[in-house]
Amino acid sequence: MAVKKASGSWRILIASSHPLFAEGLRSLLQRQKDQEAVVVGYVSTIEEAVAALQDLQPDLVIVDYDDERVNREEFLARFVEGEGRLRVVLLSLGERGHEAIVYDRRTLAASQIEEWLEKWQESPIASVPPTRKRIPVGRVRINRKRRDNMKHVIAAALVVIAFMVVGFWALGQVNLLPVQASLQAQAIDGLFGLHFKAIIVLFSLIVGLMIYSIIAFRRKSGDRTDASHIEGSTPLEVAWTVVPLAAVLYVAYAGSITLGETLRADPKPLEVNVIGSQWSWRFEYPDLGINSTELILPENKQSLLRLSSTDVIHSFWVPEFRVKQDALPGGDEFVRDLRVTPTKAGDYMISCAELCGRLHYDMQAPVKVLALADFDAWVQAQTSPISDDPAVRGEAWSQKFGCRACHSVDGRVGVGPTWKGLFGSQAALTDGVTATVDNDYLIESIRQPGLKITAGFQNLMPANIATDLSDEQLQDIIAFIETLK
């Protein structure tokens, strides 16, 4: 810094308890090419300053105006108003580290103040009136700094844009979602797309700027200087508050529009009762009089799925439909509605999306979306008389009411005892008693499943499993079991 006396260099003593102030001021003084100002020492108390005067013989004492631990009035009273009349300046570093504020000019002699102020106005430290108005660094240096900053801004922007281009290209090359097979999926996929794009933009901004900063602003070899002390930027803080808030509000608005689309009701939907049990699904078509273990839906027609459970909480989910809803136990008041409009004929699979017990992973059921004509043909086939043979009818009822999900007909052990060879056998019960599996035993076990439990099995059969079974249908099922010798 070019702060000169009439002859020789200024010897400067800095009074501050803040290391950042001392280092920042030292950096400002060293930025000038002609080194006529020399920092000879640092003190933080009046006692240290008195001792330094004798040893260091400074020409000028610069006191940190913002340091409350330094008694400014004591410095002025001791060195300015007392004997010796030492030059003392109260100074505060500017927020950007390129300027300074001088608060007290009366500490310099009148014969020296004009030359001193002129030199300081040309240097990084500038004198300002008591209004705290800052006098900027020399215009040439500011322009050079602005050009450097603009180069960094442009280079960082190019890096961020490159990340975004690669991210959007990669997004177009992969299928993150399964086949879109419902009208509701179209609206939901639009919202997913918005989120994926927002993720790419945020990733590019964060990672791109981080990588550029690591490369462009890394510490050079041999550089031991401190970084600039930055207090903050009000415009930046306002921007990074307002912009994310606006983005969140927009996403919330888009989400509400999507929710409205998924809940839009058609005047005459196909109503299907979906009943979840550990660990199977059953489907009733009350207007058609059909029961099934497969969910058959017509294409391009809305279906109203009324979900319930016989035991624990299950969750109905077909990934291709996108929508999902819980099936709750507790009766009619806990029935939940889910609307689906299939748009793509094909075979899909229901999965339970709520952990519901030991065989949760296997709680699945097929879904078939049929063209309207094929759906009508299926309805016709289901409502036609099945057979005059009770055993044939019983096999059909066992499929429709979900019995086969737990009981095999080929001897394999499942959740419940196999039906193969069951009729007429001796069943060992958990209480140590042996019972003959006859017509009465099977009726009792179906109507009251928790009354007698076969040894080696748990009481997992829903208590109301036979609620929808008529006596005739129950006898048909027993006739079918009797044929499995």
Strand-helix topology:
Blueprint: E1 10-15, H1 19-30, E2 37-43, H2 46-56, E3 60-64, H3 72-81, E4 87-93, E5 100-102, H4 110-122, H5 139-173, H6 183-216, H7 234-262, E6 270-277, E7 280-285, E8 290-292, E9 295-298, E10 303-309, E11 314-317, E12 324-327, E13 336-340, E14 346-352, E15 364-370, H8 372-383, H9 390-400, E16 426-428, E17 434-436, H10 439-447, H11 471-482
Parallel strand pairs: 1-2, 1-3, 3-4, 6-10, 9-15
Antiparallel strand pairs: 4-5, 6-7, 7-8, 10-13, 11-12, 11-14, 14-15, 16-17
Word description of this protein:
39% of the residues lie in helices and 18% in strands. The chain has 4 domains: 10-137, 3-Layer(aba) Sandwich (Rossmann fold), CATH 3.40.50; 140-217 and 232-262, no CATH class; 270-383, Immunoglobulin-like, CATH 2.60.40.420; 390-482, Cytochrome Bc1 Complex, Chain D, domain 2 (Orthogonal Bundle). The chain has 485 residues and is an alpha/beta fold. The model is unreliable at 1-7, 105-114 and 120-142 (pLDDT under 50). Strand 16 (426-428) and strand 17 form a beta hairpin. Helix 5 (139-173) packs antiparallel against helix 6 (183-216) and helix 9 (390-400) packs across helix 11. The strands form 4 sheets. A 5-stranded mixed beta sheet has the order 2-1-3-4-5, with helices on both faces. It has 11 helices and 17 strands.
